[in-house]
Design brief:
The protein is α/β, with parallel strands linked by helices. It has a single domain, classed as HUPs (Rossmann fold). It contains six helices and five strands. The mean pLDDT is 92.
Length: 175
């Protein structure tokens, strides 16, 4: 009897992807046979990067990692559980940095379990040294000229520098 591969989804806006996200991706990939990193459109958050740019940055960040062959990066603009169902996922992976993240994530997991009872949510605590890393903080530090190289890949740091230069030059944001 052949066993079907266990597939998981790790969703996020990834604006931009950080070392904390990358850590959760690698750890999640050890818990499933196949991992889909779902990059959410999420226009409501007013992302700095377009959806296509964020997908490309995530792909670049996982390239060359041990589990890269078992990770797929896909954009989505739908209900998370629908995206998971459409991609045959049984598990939704979520990262928690602090207790403050838990309340929101707990409520979301509860709603998702009502909408799609066959999909489990798994919470992974942020690794030591990653609890304070967030896309919002990375963007703010970078925008103010701080060193973000410990928190993002060189490709992401360069993309942020270009975007901040465009902002400073008065170029309109991309959508």
């Amino acid at each position: 009897m052949s066993q079907q591969a266990r597939r998981g989804v790790y969703p996020g806006t990834f604006d931009p992807i950080t070392s904390g996200h990358s850590d959760i991706i690698q750890r999640s990939s050890r818990l499933v046979d196949e991992l889909i990193v779902g990059v959410a459109h999420n226009a409501g958050k007013g992302p700095l990067f377009t959806l296509e740019e964020r997908v490309a940055l995530v792909k670049d960040s996982i390239r060359g990692t041990p589990a890269a062959a078992r990770i797929t990066v896909l954009p989505f603009d739908s209900l998370l559980v629908k995206f998971a169902q459409d991609n045959g996922a049984e598990v939704i992976m979520r990262g928690l940095r602090a207790v403050s993240d838990f309340e929101y994530e707990f409520q979301m997991a509860g709603m998702n379990s009502k909408l799609a009872p066959g999909i489990e949510t798994v919470f992974l605590m942020a690794a030591d040294g990653q609890q304070f890393v967030s896309s919002r903080f990375v963007k703010e530090i970078g925008r103010l000229g701080g060193d973000i190289t410990r928190f993002v890949t060189p490709t992401v740091a360069a993309a942020l520098a270009r975007r901040f230069a465009e902002e400073a030059a008065g170029k309109p944001p991309r959508s």
